[in-house]
Write a structure and sequence with these properties.
mainly alpha, about 60 residues, 2 strands, 5 helices, single chain
Length: about 60
């Protein structure tokens, strides 16, 4: 699944570590999601959407 996580994170000047801390996940998990190696669970996708104050569809895109 494609996503805009890296762009959204960069717009806020957050490191992967900053985002990981905000989501209570590892930096490696953030990296895996950003690179498309891992699709987040639905609860995690909702937490990400809430953090960025965007709908899930604005962050995660179908291939």
């Amino acid at each position: 699944m494609k996503n805009r996580l890296k762009v959204l994170r960069a717009e806020r000047d957050w490191t992967q570590g900053d985002l990981a801390d905000a989501l209570a996940i590892s930096r490696q998990s953030v990296n895996a999601i950003e690179t498309g190696k891992y699709d987040p669970s639905l609860p995690l996708a909702f937490r990400i959407a809430d953090l960025f104050d965007l709908p899930i569809e604005a962050i995660f895109l179908r291939d």
